[in-house]
Amino acid sequence: MTGSNVNASKETGEPNHAGHRGGKSVWWQWTASASGPVTINTFGSSFDTLLAVYTGTSVGSLTAIASNDDSDSLQSQVQFSAVAGTTYRIAVDGWNGASGSITLRVTFSSGLQPVYRLYSDGAPESTHTHLWTLSETERDVLNSWPSWNYEGIAWYSYLNNFSGGVPLYRLYEPNIKRHLYTMDTTEYEVLGRKTWEREGIQYYVYANNALAGTVPAYRFYNASNKNHHFTIDENEKNHIIANPKMGYAYESIAFYVYSQARTSSLFVDDTPNPKSYTKNVVTDTAIDNDVINGNEVTSAQPTSKVLDIRYDSEKGFWYILCETELIELTNVPGDYNGDGIEDTALYEESSGNWYVAFAEADDSSSLSFNEPIQLGGSGFMPVPGDFNNDGVSDLAVYHEETGICFIMTIDGDVLVWGREVDKSVLCE
Description:
Blueprint: E1 2-4, E2 26-31, E3 36-41, E4 49-55, E5 63-68, E6 77-82, E7 87-94, E8 101-103, E9 105-109, E10 112-120, E11 130-133, H1 136-144, E12 148-158, E13 166-173, E14 178-182, H2 185-192, E15 197-205, E16 214-222, E17 227-231, H3 234-242, E18 248-258, E19 263-266, E20 277-279, E21 285-292, E22 295-302, E23 306-312, E24 317-322, E25 326-328, E26 330-331, E27 344-348, E28 353-357, E29 373-374, E30 380-382, E31 395-399, E32 404-408, E33 414-420, H4 423-426
Parallel strand pairs: 20-22
Antiparallel strand pairs: 1-8, 2-7, 3-6, 3-9, 4-5, 4-7, 9-19, 10-11, 10-12, 13-14, 13-15, 16-17, 16-18, 21-22, 23-24, 24-25, 26-27, 27-28, 28-29, 30-31, 31-32, 32-33
């Protein structure tokens, strides 16, 4: 996120951020889509910053979550555990009234945990089987024994249910010293009524690959030693299948997991005007309005993570590929940098995000979309045009039912903000 507090001030009743008086604060807000650790910093800002995070709906009723003065030289950084659905107010101020350009970064980890893989080998009591565990303690204890060896991280999963996950159960058979992992509750209950010991839910997995980023975990069975083996490694899967002498028969895809941890950085490419409002543009957002510090705030609420922007040549429309869905976009072509060449601007109504790609004169390079700019939201439709007659297309949205219009330049300068207008005049 970028901005400036040069023209900012401090409101009556506003707290001292990070324990210092400050005097030139700018506010953003962010709503966590899931629970997990979040890091916010002002690294790259041009002045001595104060950073604070709060919850609350007005400047006089805030609850402090975290704050910091100097973390990296004169810049600030805070870390805390975000709670899903909670809106956090982020204040950036200047120490002793300092001011300048602000660079604010919010990095959110969605809570994926590593699942560790160990192999039993090297001692007479070794079973020559694998074990998968989310527990660092179990990993370290087993690895300290001569009969077990830690092999590394097998995959990543959630400790708690997230985005439609299903529980993965673990069982243990003491007579043959084997573990089994299954998301099939029937298999879990049937085996549990026999000689298998039910060890409960280990973590959460997925029944299909509907969520982008998930990969299949393949299940094998060795009838000779009565052991099941699991892997997400395609090479390992193919090697086992190609070598039947190993004794393992491929059964099926057992479940889906993540092959790597997902940490998303949320950026803003925008310049807030602290005297009248604070615009917040965060990757994958939905729009909401609130008032804090006397300013109208455009609230960013993360939805599903944007993975790619693509064009369907057969159907003739642009869409966003997200973790959980495909979102069709409205193309609002125009000259958004004033070079006389038509650029591509894509608008997502559900979030109010605009994605702009500047075209080259000879079409020699593929389109590269910038970080999203947020203006609009549900019910707001894009209106193409150059509304200040400077030769550069602007971003404009209009609400059909209320007649409310918002217009700003691509650089963030406000032309019309929340004004009721006649659409016929707007479209002239």
